[in-house]
Amino acid sequence: MAAFSYTVTLPILPIRCSSNTNNHDPNKQNLNKLKISGVPTRSVKIDTLTTTAGVAATSVASVSENGYISKEQVRQNIPTQKQFVDSHRQGLIVEEGYRQTVVIRSYEVGPDKTATLESILNLLQETALNHVWMSGLLSNGFGATHGMMKNNLIWVVSRMQVQIDHYPIWGEIVEIDTWVGASGKNGMRRDWLIRSQATGHVFARATSTWVMMNEKTRRLSKMPEEVRAEISPWFKEKRAIQEFVPEKIAKLDSKARYAISNLKPKRTDMDMNNHVNNVKYVKWMMESIPDQFLESHQLSGIILEYRKECGSSDVVQSLCEPDEDGILNSSMGQHSEISILNGLSFASEIMEGNGLLGSLNNAPARFTHLLQAKGETQDEEIVRGKTTWKKRLPTKPFSA
């Protein structure tokens, strides 16, 4: 059956608290003058300052010749043209890339009322997909462009690094910026910044490297020129984390100090590309760390190197080994200057009167991790990891 494209205008019914619309039109919004608790948000440069929220014009890509639109297309309403503002996702295209405003929900925090690591990683993934959504490049895949779908290609992450100085608290409003850049000839880099909307203070930074895989053969693929033409106009040169020499993660063996075996993926752990969700890998890594340590420390950094995709039939083993040489070799071995580490520095500890010993006591601890698929004859690496931890502080809102 032949298919053609045309534009369909779908009404969006806003919820109104009052029927009086003479003085206030909820369909007109000035995005540079939104106020929260009487304080205007930071002004940002966008390509359009106003939007009509009551009616959204969206191009539907595949419609049968009799004009029928599938229920899935109506429900998703995937745009095929660049959108500057999305009132539903609280996101907008800015000069730096894409910005989304998020309120930390009660189910995204732990007992200390701060956002969990899993919640932060989920927010990173969500903003990345929303960025592709608003770009107009999203096909019916999970973050795949139209050119990728034509070539049976999907994105897979090869490396990810997250640095967390402070954790948002329940009810806090945060802004998440994300953008993409080139990574070699066939890869793409995606970065993130998470900041407090109230103070502008940066809570976390993250960077990742992505490559393409053929969905059918499960082999890595070069980037087709049509895909490069789609995504290269969005590339930015800036970086969230300046990493001149990537840290090399050593492989652990079965004699690691801490190990948990027989971890098995479930259907709920899989994404649309039949990969185990990246957040699940991190949870498996945390399970091998002693509970006593987790109660007294808070994760401040993580590096993941992905080696092999994990399927639903795999049985996974999580290995963990503390770094005995501690912080001196890892953070000061190659640099003579005093390094700032995860919001705490040796200089600040000494100036506060704690001395060098106090600074060492508060220095982050480090672990090396390995997730591997258990095989009858040989185990296969899935992910290598490195985590950095600092002493857990009493919960209190961060103030500049």
Automatic annotation (TrEMBL):
<keyword id="KW-0443">Lipid metabolism</keyword>
<dbReference type="Pfam" id="PF20791">
    <property type="entry name" value="Acyl-ACP_TE_C"/>
</dbReference>
<dbReference type="InterPro" id="IPR002864">
    <property type="entry name" value="Acyl-ACP_thioesterase_NHD"/>
</dbReference>
<keyword id="KW-0276">Fatty acid metabolism</keyword>
<dbReference type="GO" id="GO:0009507">
    <property type="term" value="C:chloroplast"/>
</dbReference>
<keyword id="KW-0809">Transit peptide</keyword>
<dbReference type="InterPro" id="IPR049427">
    <property type="entry name" value="Acyl-ACP_TE_C"/>
</dbReference>
<comment type="similarity">
    <text>Belongs to the acyl-ACP thioesterase family.</text>
</comment>
<keyword id="KW-0934">Plastid</keyword>
<comment type="function">
    <text>Plays an essential role in chain termination during de novo fatty acid synthesis.</text>
</comment>
<keyword id="KW-0275">Fatty acid biosynthesis</keyword>
<dbReference type="GO" id="GO:0000036">
    <property type="term" value="F:acyl carrier activity"/>
</dbReference>
<keyword id="KW-0378">Hydrolase</keyword>
<dbReference type="InterPro" id="IPR029069">
    <property type="entry name" value="HotDog_dom_sf"/>
</dbReference>
<protein>
    <recommendedName>
        <fullName>Acyl-[acyl-carrier-protein] hydrolase</fullName>
        <ecNumber>3.1.2.-</ecNumber>
    </recommendedName>
</protein>
<keyword id="KW-0150">Chloroplast</keyword>
<dbReference type="GO" id="GO:0016297">
    <property type="term" value="F:fatty acyl-[ACP] hydrolase activity"/>
</dbReference>
<dbReference type="InterPro" id="IPR045023">
    <property type="entry name" value="FATA/B"/>
</dbReference>
<feature type="domain" description="Acyl-ACP thioesterase-like C-terminal">
    <location>
        <begin position="255"/>
        <end position="338"/>
    </location>
</feature>
<dbReference type="Pfam" id="PF01643">
    <property type="entry name" value="Acyl-ACP_TE"/>
</dbReference>
<keyword id="KW-0444">Lipid biosynthesis</keyword>
<feature type="domain" description="Acyl-ACP thioesterase N-terminal hotdog">
    <location>
        <begin position="97"/>
        <end position="231"/>
    </location>
</feature>
